[in-house]
Design a protein that fits this description.
By secondary structure, the protein is α+β, with helices and mostly antiparallel strands. It is built from 5 helices and 19 strands. The chain folds into 2 domains: about 130 residues, no CATH class; about 140 residues, TATA-Binding Protein, CATH 3.30.310. The strands form 4 sheets. It has a 7-stranded antiparallel beta sheet with strand order 14-15-16-17-13-18-19, covered by helices on one side. The longest helix is centred in the last third of the chain and has 17 residues.
Amino acid sequence: MVESPRATLDTVPDRHQIGPIQWAAFHTGPFISRCATILPMRIPIKTVEDLRWLLGHTGGFRSGYVTDVQMSKRRLFDEASSREVPVETMVTVVVRYHLRQMARVARLTMMGVTDFSIFEQEGVDCSALSVIQAECTAGKLRFWFDPQGELYVVCDEAQLEEVAMPLLEDRMRQQPAQWTFQSPVAEWPTIEWLLNALGESGSPCTWKKAKVMKKGQSGIQGIQWEGDLLPTSATAEPDSGRVHVMLYGPLDGPGFGIVVNTVGAQTRGASLILSAVADLLVRRFSGQCLVGNTIIPGGEWLSWKSLEQLRWTKAVE
């Protein structure tokens, strides 16, 4: 009998041993960066070594919780039988968790699913996680998301996508609208570039720098700049149309992230500024967006936003 090579946290190598990370300094035009590359935004999981990396990178999603589970089936038309036949099943699990002072949303897509089980009785919640377990045997990946096996998947391969941001629950939990963008691009945007781009796009703003906290007081690492955008026409009313912007990085390897959220009551002016900032970033940088628990590739943001606006318009008619 061949022992099943199960990946556990005890067998996970240090995450810095996964691959070399080279650091460099850049100063090109209006962008400043101190980093080179970042891990791919979609990381394939196929082998036991990949599983060890996954558990090491995520900490096994310890104390996280499942927000979404989705199953989809792909069918093709079979000319011989003149009917559609199933060819692949995919299961996607979205997990929110905290690790290394970062709030993280991960989407694990499992492809070629041959066994899938989800079972939840009244009064039992299988969404709360302790530490997931995974193994690779006979060319199959197996995931146990809870100790009782109430959420269990067997598949051919998997893919991880993740957006992480500084843990700022005390400031952002009550914000009515928040948009996060994470990019592997080496050169991150400056405040000057953002203000110039907003002006050229017809949404001129002024900038109010956030109060600088004493070193170690906030416990937040990696924040490069932070402050508020105010529409030029609303500078006399600081709380009208105010949008908070924070840039952070490098994170889990080089790259940068930006959190954009409205402050106070969500006004039309604030919504327009937030939307303009999001559009400018996805047009200039490759990356992925986070809205609620939904991870959206940057290249699909504009079409996704248009579709959501259309749905909202039809809903209120």
